[in-house]
Amino acid sequence: MRSASTENDKSASTLDFDTIQAAPAVPRVECCVTGATATGFRLNALLLLSGMLMLSVPMVTLIDISVARWFAGDPLPREIGNGLELMRIFSHGTGVFLVLFGIFLMAPQCRWHLPRLATLAIGAGAIATLAKMFVLRPRPTGLNLEVASIDSAWLWAVDWSLSQVAAVDASTRAFPRGNMATATALTVGLWIVLPRGRWLFATICLGTVVQRLACSAHFPSDIIGGAAFGLLWGYVCLHPKLLGNLFDKMQPEAEPRRRRSVTAIDVQEESTQNEHQVAA
User: From CA 227, how far away is CA 249, in angstroms rounded?
Assistant: First the structure.
């Protein structure tokens, strides 16, 4: 009986050992290191896409009035409009704070990326606002879209001397769109930091575009200009020879996981202890 009990104890300890070895790991949020992965093709693509968008602004201006007139008729259902309002989370300060705070709470291993993400969002909006000081252009709400022609979309003026900067009027400062620059730059950062949510981030950014058009706040060319500024600022914050070098230095050193390895010797010692307990 004693030997049978001892064999049962050995098999039980062996089963426990197998169970420990086969236990699934706790899932963690995947977080990429932006220092090495953001170089090469991704950075060149950001710079190239930014230039392409900026060069396409004159061509998109040809359809500004038509698109603005269509959205002025309120063609979208109310439910879609409410959903688009939620998409603005990437384009304003409160939404950016909530996104960064969520990463801080739910992805501790990605916390070192937060300074870069905050700089992406805030800096892109600041640069777009600075550029907006030099450009005078009306918003769709400042035009009578029913009688406006294509020529109305070309009411551009550049105030190089900043003679009208003291009388800043939001209705005449439409280009580039600051909120779109913020949303684009934040999307670029999240795309690299949290790759599992890339399509979600891209969808939210696209929803921001549609929302700004639906509320007749901007022309399509204004939004494209803002996106170009956001991509350009993303390039600056990710490039290892620019601001990216500063943020890459914040990456914590990889610490080896300290786990007690269960070996055959440990199992044998545990079995011996069980035999002594049964003998006693």
Answer: 28
In the three-class reduction of DSSP (H, G, I as helix; E, B as strand; rest coil), residue 31 is classed as coil
- Does the pLDDT at position 248 exceed 90? no
- How high is the pLDDT of residue 232? 92
Euclidean distance between CA atoms 226 and 222, whole angstroms: 6
* Residue in the block written with tokens 């009208």: 164
The letter for the amino acid at 18 is: D
Whether 15 has a pLDDT exceeding 70, the answer reads: no
Q: Which pTM was predicted?
A: 0.73
| Nearest alpha-carbon partner for 139 in 79, 231, 71 | 71
Cα 240 from chain centroid (whole Å): 19
The DSSP output letter for 136 is E
What are 10's two structure tokens? Answer: 């050995």
Distance of alpha carbon 230 from alpha carbon 224, whole angstroms: 10
Give ∠ CA 252-258-261 in degrees, rounded to 5.
Answer: 150
Q: How far apart (Å, rounded) are the C-alpha atoms in residues 137 and 222?
A: 9
Q: Which two tokens stand for residue 104?
A: 């801080």
Phi, psi of 265 (to 5 degrees): -65, -40
Give residue-wise pLDDT tens across range 162-174: 666 655 555 567 7
Q: Which amino acid, residue 7? A: E
Structure tokens at 71: 């959205």
Report pLDDT for 272. Answer: 65
Residue with tokens 């070996």: 263
Distance between CA atoms of residues 224 and 229, nearest Å: 9
CB-based contacts of 214: which residues, under 8 Å, 6+ apart?
71, 76, 81, 84
